[in-house]
Amino acid sequence: MRIPEDVRKDIPLTQEVIYFDNTATSLTPIPVVKAMDEYYLKYRANVHRGVHKLSQMATHKYEESRKIVADFIGAKFEEIVFTKNTSESLNLVALGLEWKKGDRIVTTPYEHHSDLLPWQRVARKYGAKLEIIEGDDEGNLDLSDAEKKIKGAKLVAVQHVSNALGVIHEVEEIGKMAKEEGAIFVVDAAQSVGHMEVDVRKIHADFLAFSGHKGPLGPTGIGVLYINEEMFDIFDPPLVGGGTIEDVDLCCYKLTAPPERYEAGTPNIGGAIGLAAGIKYIEKIGLDKIEKQEHKLVKRTTEGLTELEIPWYGPRNLKKHAGVVSFNVPPLHPHDVAAILDEHNIMVRSGHHCALPVMKRLGINGTVRASFHVYNSIEEVETFLGVMEELVKSLR
């Protein structure tokens, strides 16, 4: 498969716009849409409930999708739980664990709100203590401080890739620290799965969350929560009801085995099938090719912005910089810059990116964010830089 030409042929929207908003949601290839259409048109039924052939086919495809997801991140079949998105997955972790006063939770100053607010709420509700690993303005964590803070911690929660700064955090090293201390390790992998290799065993994850509509090129409304089998006995399902039980009396109930015990009610069947199709598409391309393409795009974008004297944020060490570039064009507001780019059919994101503590640390009210996937091209980056050059000239 030629990169990015062949991928662009499978995504018609790439012929109409320059889409640099992949951190928010990625575009969907035709094979993914077809896989979902097949479910809705040929074997539409609920799963795990019926003996008729449509239900049996739907159940088979749904559970086959779980196996595809598990293999993709190095997990076991029963460790994969389908959710709505990364935010729901991370909230479920916080809600399903037992807490007591004095429990220590360690996280970073760069987290998406969805990997910060749940822990803040636990601290407020149960008297747990929230501690923050130190880092610099580029998003680089102080690993020596991490080691100190993790000692005696109950839980450590870290994003793999910052959606605001693009920095790739050392989750393998931090996971090892957590493991050595007996702490629960939670990874927000919303911006890494589908863009780079993610192996839950390698990074020592106890819980890991990601969304189908970002890196995996799947649909919206489907997410994944990986639960290490060692957590099954201590992680209580926050939601119970249909599908989660083995037996029920008027007084009490007995939960069924994972993963079904963690999936109450009718799941997003079409979404799971679409997610699996997206993962198969990613595997067909190859994660190594995706990483290489995104690195080229980041390198040219940051070089171009530097040449134009446009301030950009994130790690200067591009080996630690994923396919996300945040920048500003003073004195313009980020939304104004995004609107100008939109006039040239270039789609970017502007604002605080659900990372307000990061923006406050940098003393800014937000950034413009260009984020990439494998179907983006160097030619698109050059077009983007050309618009930025004209914009800078108009301000002088």
From TrEMBL:
EC number: 2.8.1.7
Cofactor: pyridoxal 5'-phosphate
GO function terms (MF aspect): cysteine desulfurase activity; pyridoxal phosphate binding
Keywords, alphabetical: Pyridoxal phosphate, Transferase
Catalytic activity entry: (sulfur carrier)-H + L-cysteine = (sulfur carrier)-SH + L-alanine
Source organism, top-level taxon: Archaea
GO BP term, example: cysteine metabolic process
Aminotransferase class V domain boundaries: 18-384
Family from the record: Belongs to the class-V pyridoxal-phosphate-dependent aminotransferase family. Csd subfamily.
Name of the protein in its database record: cysteine desulfurase
Organism: Thermococcus barophilus (strain DSM 11836 / MP)
